[in-house]
Write a structure and sequence with these properties.
The complex is a heterodimer. By secondary structure, chain A is α+β, with helices and mostly antiparallel strands. Chain A has a domain at 224-318: Enolase-like, domain 1, CATH 3.30.390.50. Chain A is built from 14 helices and twelve strands. The N and C termini of chain A lie far apart (46 Å). In chain B, helix 4 crosses helix 7. Chain B is of the alpha+beta class. In chain B, strands 3-2-6-4-5 form a five-stranded mixed beta sheet, with helices on both faces. Chain B has helices spanning 22-28, 87-94, 139-144, 149-157, 167-180, 186-192, 203-214, and strands at residues 58-62, 66-72, 75-81, 113-116, 119-122, 135-137. Classes of the chains: A alpha+beta, B alpha+beta. Chains A and B meet through strand 1, helix 1, helix 2, strand 3 and helix 6 of A and helix 1, strand 1 and strand 5 of B. Bound molecules: flavin-adenine dinucleotide and iron/sulfur cluster (SF4). The site of iron/sulfur cluster (SF4) has 14 residues of chain A, from helix 8 and helix 9.
């Protein structure tokens, strides 16, 4: 691992001062240390934001819930208000990674973690995402790459919580030195490669810090279900995940780990219309429509079968039904 | 979390090594009212020509080796570390605590599990410098804690180890699991230990061992 200058910020303005000087933010460092060890990243300087009190904890306020950027996956998964009103988010946080990782992994770091594409993670491949000439996944081993929204880079977004944030209409709040910061809809936070998200996966500027994630006030009749399908039940990222969320009037279906961003299954959504109650037949039909717009690569069309299963089960779970 | 500014265990010196100007600094710091951490301007670091500056709310440590005090297994240990060193590496190579094992070094296997303020974490994906101001407990400390005597006996009685390399991490995690949930069900034990891999595959005996002390029989 290359040596780096280190600084510890005790408040947001201290952190911003460091970012303005080219330091990269580090929360718990779980993803960063992985990248540093592989030499996929070699920043000259890091600023720890882990001690900033204003970024910690989860608050219920104005009917909504504000999750501090430093709140852990464990805290998020166990929070009573999130479990009750944003159940799919709590489940997504509680099922990510391992107990030891969830105890430190922050939500800010989780939505900003870099992709797991093995060409990206290996220092030997200077692919498009690292400013190189080509995407090695196209001609190479692409079983685990994207089937929606892909090209010219074909990563899948690794965050467990991101699809739930999109499904619930969460907002990501930032601070920045120039304009003071902004509030970004989760759906606008993640960037497709074709929209400029090749060298990065979200709209954050280099000197911008995520301070919190805001969930809107829950509405009557809100319900949700989360399903993830994994090769291994632990220590690996899901192959496919699905959040099905009903907001009292309509369903939002968001897929995870199948596209460079969380991906709305609009085919399924339009089929469901305003149907509040889910029967096995409706779930099956909605699931069958989940592959609308799919662009599988040479080795990964099998993932669409998992998508179908995840959509069907997430809908049934959201409606309190049994799943097989 | 404790305020490191008042700990006095990290050196406060700040030499700012990135190129920048005082004007930029002032522009960026318009919001800094109320920040308390004014650093001593002792110039140590790599870049002797760099402009030294005090930035409220920021403690600049540079990249070189520095003396820090870590609280490990109840004792304060002063040790010279570089910011890039992992907690696992410092425990094993600088503090002589070799019970925590390095296996995958990427957070998947759980063999380097230690307690940080009582919570089980993987020490390979944590910088040692980030442990300043926190209590670290390794397998050595967990094994010495009388509350874990029955747990450790149970691992022996159930013949839970084959090569044994994963066992320190699993015992540390099991101890934390029993703190979180004194009477876990069989399923909760499996879930709770899902961050630890045993390549000999003695899982059933490991789960039995933890299960045997989970019904109030820990001590
Ligand atoms: C074995 C293993 C299994 C895993 N499995 C899963 C899984 O199943 N699902 C899943 O979702 N994740 C999984 N992860 C990833 C893990 O959840 C993330 O690495 C973790 O959440 C990152 O949080 P952190 O605080 O350590 O971030 P850091 O490593 O500190 O930061 C990660 C990135 O985010 C940036 N960043 C951090 N905080 C902020 C902020 N407030 N503002 C702006 N930028 C910021 C950093 O600059 C960096 O680029 C797994 C990790 C491991 C090691
Ligand atoms: S999918 Fe993206 S990250 Fe992976 S090799 Fe292609 S360009 Fe690189």
């Amino acid at each position: 691992m290359k040596a780096f200058d280190y600084a510890i910020a005790s408040n947001e303005s201290g952190a911003l001062a460091a970012l303005e000087r080219g330091y990269r933010p580090k929360a718990s460092g779980i993803d960063l240390l992985d990248l540093l060890k592989e030499r996929t990243a070699a920043p000259d300087s890091l600023v720890s934001i882990a001690d900033i009190a204003t970024l910690k904890g989860i608050r219920e306020e104005d009917g909504g819930i504000a999750i501090g950027a430093l709140a852990t996956l464990e805290e998020t998964g166990a929070h009573a208000g999130i479990r009750k009103h944003f159940h799919a988010l709590a489940e997504a946080a509680a099922e990510a990674a391992t107990p030891q990782i969830r105890a430190r992994a922050t939500v800010g770091g989780n939505i900003c973690q870099r992709p797991r594409c093995w060409y990206f993670r290996s220092a030997d491949f200077n692919c498009l995402k690292k400013g190189g000439p080509t995407c090695y996944a196209v001609e190479g081993e692409n079983s685990f790459h994207a089937v929606f929204g892909n090209g010219p880079c074909h990563i899948t977004h690794p965050s467990n919580i991101a699809p739930a944030l999109v499904a619930f209409g969460a907002e990501i709040v930032t601070v920045a030195p120039e304009d003071g910061g902004r509030t970004i809809r989760a759906a606008d936070f993640f960037m497709l490669p074709e929209d400029g998200g090749i060298m990065k996966e979200n709209v954050l500027k280099k000197d911008e810090l995520v301070t919190e994630i805001r969930l809107p006030a829950a509405v009557a009749g809100q319900k949700s279900g989360y399903v993830e399908l994994r090769e291994k039940q632990s220590f690996d990222w899901p192959l496919v995940s699905c959040v099905a969320a009903f907001n009292g009037t309509k369903w939002t279906i968001v897929l995870g780990h199948v596209a460079p961003t969380p991906w709305r299954a609009k085919g399924s959504e339009s089929l469901l219309g305003k149907a509040a109650a889910i029967t096995p037949e409706i779930a099956e039909k909605a699931a069958a429509a989940s592959d609308r717009g799919a662009k599988p690569m040479s080795q990964n069309a099998w993932r669409l079968k998992l998508v179908r299963a995840a959509v069907r089960r997430a809908l049934l779970l959201a409606d309190g039904k049994e799943i097989d | 979390m404790k305020d490191r500014e008042n700990e006095g265990t990290l050196p406060g010196p700040a030499v700012f090594t990135a190129p920048h100007s005082r004007r930029l600094f002032l522009k960026g710091m318009g919001l800094a009212a109320g920040a308390t951490a004014i650093l001593p301007t002792v110039a140590v670091g790599q870049n002797a020509d760099a402009e030294t500056e005090e930035i409220p709310g920021l403690k600049i440590l540079g990249r070189g080796e520095q003396k820090v005090t870590l609280k490990v297994n109840g004792a304060s240990r002063t040790v010279a570390i570089e910011p890039r060193e992992t907690l696992l590496n410092v425990l094993r190579t600088k503090l002589g605590l070799t019970g925590s094992k390095e296996v995958c070094d990427r957070g998947t296997c759980g063999c380097c599990t230690v307690l940080l303020d009582g919570a089980s974490i993987v020490s390979c994906l944590m910088l040692a410098i980030d442990a300043v101001g926190h209590e670290v407990t390794t397998i050595e400390g967990v094994a010495d804690d009388p509350k874990n005597a029955a747990l450790i006996d149970a691992f022996c009685e159930h013949d839970a180890a084959q090569c044994g390399y994963c066992i320190p991490g699993i015992v540390v995690r099991s101890s934390a699991l029993l703190d979180e949930n004194p009477a876990p069900t069989a399923e909760e034990i499996r879930q709770g230990l899902s961050g630890n891999i045993c390549r000999c595959g003695t899982y059933t005996k490991i789960f039995d061992a933890v299960g045997s002390v989970s019904k109030g029989g820990r001590t």
